[in-house]
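Input sequence (295 aa), recorded before submission:
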Amino acid sequence: VEIGPDGTLTAMARGCVDEEGLAFVPLLRKDRPEGDALVGALGRLHVHGKSPDWSALLPEAPTSPDTDRIDLPTYPFQRERYWLDAPFVSRASDGPDSALYAVDWTEVPLPSEDTESARAEVAVLGRTHPDLAALSASVAQGAPAPGVVVLPWPQDSDGQPTQPATHEPATVHAALAEVLAVVQQWLAEERLSGSTLVVLTSGAVAVPSDEVLCPVAASAWGLLRSAQSENPGRFVLIDTDRPRDLTEAGAEAATETASPVLRAVRAGEPQLALRAGTAHAPRLVRHTPGAPRED
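Predicted structure, token format:
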């Protein structure tokens, strides 16, 4: 035991003695508080079987025969693990490609047509009401706020669905400005805060074996997806391969008939693509890269 300001002599003593099983313990270290260093030194002495005179160190401790004493173990620690470790699996084929994901359109079921929830108040902009301002004015005059507001997009000046004759950047930018104005007006209208705006497009997304046919509608989807993330539950995007669904939406709403579009609204998905009467929803899946091109 070295009684001094540091462990210099202890290190030198270890190098001078060949005998094994000896303990060299300094009581103080210059880089540690004195109390911590002393307690640590006593602990090291104890695990080597050299217990100090506890009556001298702790004169106030009870010494009667009835005092309970606990024998401390002479090993430094005991460790038992109870966690189930999952085996590490590594495959030679794992590489950067294994971290790639892509969006896949997965088939999802639609609600049945004969449920009572199909008979909801539905307004179709361009059919039941000329525009959002007219709908808001109707609600302000006492009409019930519809639970679902359908906006076929894009529309012509008469509120009918249309496909732009040109896909020039200026046309896309102008259409996006109109969509943004509708979104801002929709979110600012407190009378319709409990309603859902369903934007109905055609050719906006590419389900497998499809291709994007309408850049204007596709750009609107990009903007509206951002609006969805910031305002959950206020927007639903539906893309259909039957453009006449757009023109029939008003008649369907007027007769409270559950068309595929309205059934899709009740499916609870924020984004859907209707293809041949079947609904598809976007899902994130692991991407499998194709074979590299040889040209």
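Checked by second reader. The chain has two domains: 1-79, 99-286.
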